[in-house]
């Protein structure tokens, strides 16, 4: 299968994050994408090409246009306010505050459009966000034009970004934009299977009231795992979307036996939806040595995962999400794809 990757992802670099009492280099770093790219080349998965530029028109159907318009203004406004370093949200309109009045100060706008401090900006962040969005849409175009599968090597990731908020290293929800692009091109049903360690709260929120895009999530139990405030098993969708959202929260320490049982159930749900296309939100932070996660999958499990997904027999778009064990991220992410191709 073809891999789409933009060199512009690397403009999002040098940012820091708050982590357990310290300010550290962000875990979501450029080497992640470069190491996956090198592994794609090493195993000969297929050609690696750059994305085409895409308008934000499709993104405006899954994100608030005012939110999308805010993203490119962050760094210029931050600089204009005399600041440098990393622009980061730190004050939020939680319960008891006004969440309905967009403020003017840049530090206030950052919090207005965020649910955590993990969506950080440096000078090149918007360029990288846009390139990641373009990557998802270009790879989706390959699948639309008949490729059985494609790999959108997106960076930054997207699954925590909702209709009008960023968070968890995510800004534009690349998988959601891709899903919308398939619907716009005539797909009647799409499934998003999110196998990142963290619940894809943004994807769930965007499609929660919709029956056309089914969202199935396998993840660490939000009682103890980020993003904490969404991802429970009783969240089934609302209105027309009721029954089209499925969560499989699992305890810390889950290994292949528990995880693969959930994957089997998730795949049965996807098959039941009979989608025209499957989008896999591919995170490999389920790995036993991931520095911020608590599952126990081994490198040998990733090809198994790919083979199970291939059994669905669906046109499939893989969209890169998380994975922070950088040394093994190439082996693990590409392992899913080679397993898929072996079927
Ligand atoms: C993004 B994706 C470390 C704690 C975790 C946010 C995790 C975001 C994960 N500072 N903070 O789903 O892989
Ligand atoms: Zn994750």
TrEMBL record:
Signal peptide residue numbers: none
Keywords in alphabetical order: Hydrolase, Metal-binding, Zinc
CDD domains in alphabetical order: HDAC_classII_APAH (cd10001)
Any one GO biological process: epigenetic regulation of gene expression
Cofactors required: Zn(2+)
InterPro entries on file: HDACs, His_deacetylse_dom, His_deacetylse_dom_sf, Ureohydrolase_dom_sf
GO molecular function per UniProt: histone deacetylase activity; hydrolase activity; metal ion binding
Domain Histone deacetylase span(s) in chain numbering: 28-330
UniProt similarity note: Belongs to the histone deacetylase family.
Full protein name: Histone deacetylase family protein
Protein's organism: Neoaquamicrobium microcysteis
């Amino acid at each position: 299968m073809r891999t789409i990757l933009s060199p512009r992802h690397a403009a999002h670099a040098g940012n820091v994050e708050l982590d357990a009492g310290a300010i550290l280099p962000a875990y979501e770093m450029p080497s992640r994408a470069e190491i996956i790219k090198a592994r794609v080349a090493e195993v000969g998965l297929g050609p690696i090409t750059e994305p085409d530029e895409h308008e934000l028109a499709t993104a405006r159907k899954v994100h608030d246009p005012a939110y999308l318009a805010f993203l490119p203004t962050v760094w210029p406004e931050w600089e204009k306010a005399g600041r440098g370093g990393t622009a980061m949200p730190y004050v939020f309109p939680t319960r008891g505050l006004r969440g309905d009045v967009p403020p003017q100060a840049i530090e206030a706008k950052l919090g207005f459009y965020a649910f955590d401090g993990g969506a950080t900006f440096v000078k090149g962040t918007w360029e990288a966000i846009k390139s990641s969005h373009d990557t998802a849409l270009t790879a989706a175009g390959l699948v639309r034009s008949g490729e059985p599968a494609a790999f959108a090597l997106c960076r930054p990731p997207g699954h925590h970004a909702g209709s009008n908020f960023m968070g968890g290293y995510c800004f534009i929800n690349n998988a959601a934009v891709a899903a919308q692009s398939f619907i716009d091109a005539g797909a009647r049903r799409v499934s998003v299977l999110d196998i990142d360690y963290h619940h894809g709260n943004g994807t769930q929120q965007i499609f929660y009231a919709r029956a056309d895009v089914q969202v199935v999530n396998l993840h660490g139990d939000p009682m103890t795992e980020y993003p904490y405030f969404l991802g429970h098993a009783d969240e089934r969708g609302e209105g027309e979307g009721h029954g089209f959202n499925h969560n499989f929260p699992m305890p810390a320490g889950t290994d292949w036996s528990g995880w693969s049982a959930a994957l089997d159930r998730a795949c049965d749900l996807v098959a039941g939806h009979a989608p025209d296309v499957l989008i896999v939100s591919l995170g490999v932070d389920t790995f036993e040595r991931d520095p911020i996660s608590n599952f126990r999958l081994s490198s040998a499990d990733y090809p198994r995962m790919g083979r199970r997904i291939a059994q669905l027999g669906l046109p499939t778009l893989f969209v890169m999400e998380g994975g922070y064990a950088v040394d093994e991220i190439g082996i693990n992410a590409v392992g899913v794809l080679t397993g898929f191709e072996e079927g």
